[in-house]
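Let's practice the habit of predicting before peeking. Look at the sequence and jot down your guess about where helices and strands might fall. Then scroll down.
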Amino acid sequence: MYIPKHFSEDDLATLHTLMRDYSFATLISSQDDGVPVATPLPFVVDTHTAPYGRLYAHMALGNSQWRTFKPGREVLVIFQGPHAYITPSWYEEPLSVPTWDYATVHAYGLPRVIEDHKELYRHLKSLVEQHERQFEEQWRLDSLPDEYIEKMMRGVVGFEIEITRLQGKFKMSQNRSESERARVSQELRASQNPILCEVGELVAGVRKRAE
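Done guessing? Here is the structure:
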């Protein structure tokens, strides 16, 4: 990923936060012939393992991408955060063009298929609990009959990824003047779109760090 210095983000806590908040990410790997394959998947981000953490996910048994996992061969997971179109009408400099503000994290790592049944169940349970927290009445995986759970688990392949390196790019108008960044943030936060509002908050945060 091309990352100009002023858009680079290397704070591990910041990167982990985006990965958790936008955990539905795209897994990219290469086949033996070099052709890339990609699958969008929900991930569980484990930040407690040094140095960068681990990722857990699963895919359908019929999805052949898991067969591309080979010892020593890295895969890439792209976590796409909030993003917004930026109109040059918000700038003071008339000689400006439209652009896009966005935040993204690229996680590289070494995958391992989860073969242990109990370990796979723990991953699935963790994934469910992570997303059920938003509901007042939370659904539980263990509310299903054991026979049904066993049947469904036979249809998926779980895997973990040991993260070997992280790249973070938070392009939030850092290349504009202080007053222009303030205007961009103000306009975005005035939107009824929560994603645009979030970008506006990030632009404001970057502006404060730059001062």
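How did you do? The CA atoms of residues 170 and 208 lie 14 Å apart.
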